[in-house]
Design a protein that fits this description.
single chain; about 300 residues; alpha+beta; OB fold (Dihydrolipoamide Acetyltransferase, E2P); 3 domains; 5-stranded mixed beta barrel; 7 helices; 15 strands; nucleic acid binding; S1 motif domain-containing protein
Length: about 300
Amino acid sequence: MRLQAAPRNNKGERRPTDLELYNGLWLGQTVLGRVVVSTRKGARVEILEAHNTPTDNLRHRHGDTAEVRECQVKALPTPEAVTGNPNNTAGPLLSAFLHDRRTMWHRGWQLQSCNREDRENVMMRVEGVNGGGLVSRVCGLPIFVPYSQLHKDRDLRYSEEELRERYLGKDIEVAVIEVDMRSQKLVASVSRGLSNSIMRKFHVGHLVEGMVRRIDRNGVFIGIKDTMETGLLHISNVSRKHVPDVSEVFSVGEMVWVMVMGFEPGFGKVSFSTAELEVEDGDIMTNKELCWENRGEWLV
């Protein structure tokens, strides 16, 4: 009998099937079990505890909790199989492999979440190089760094020989950017990892060099050097004097120094100021070089 996944209501809540209610367990549930008998074909396990299931509902329960391990419910016996078994030995089919595999992939999702929310990286030792990029394993999971994620300039290409010399056998810091369940691998980025390392050093008052990427009436968007990140230099933070038109002060492609004035958790938005670098009010509009020279007073 092939078991179908239990249906969900319009709120996404899962309703147990009659078969699952009969057994007191459901497919995919995590249980704690103790091995009673082990053979080459498998093992008989006494279920001690099951997540979200009252222990009174468990048919295979033992009081001794020594040497237990977690497993995942893979299949359930039919009511006919249970009632037709005089010894009442019919029980759920458990899988330690499926549980461990699910736990590993949960770790993969955590690594991706840490990158997105906290700019956290992970270390990997490059185990191989192929035509697409770098390969390795992290937390037991295969991880892949494509060519496009080796450098912030995605058009830059290395030969396979250059990649081997540059990366093979070396520990590198990367950021997990995708969990590809279809291909069963994590996708990581060296360029994003470098960007994370730089951004995590930011604090209010930190000086940053960057390039003017875009100008509009609200201010200047500064691309932070050696990253793919952008922060806003609002027109009100350009100078201590009134700035009628920010496009008369900066031009696209110009390299500038700015001070970090604030940022959101995860560095989603970063705000900059050049007014704090002025010696005299209005210097940023008349003598920017003097402001850049004056930045030394703020370097820590």
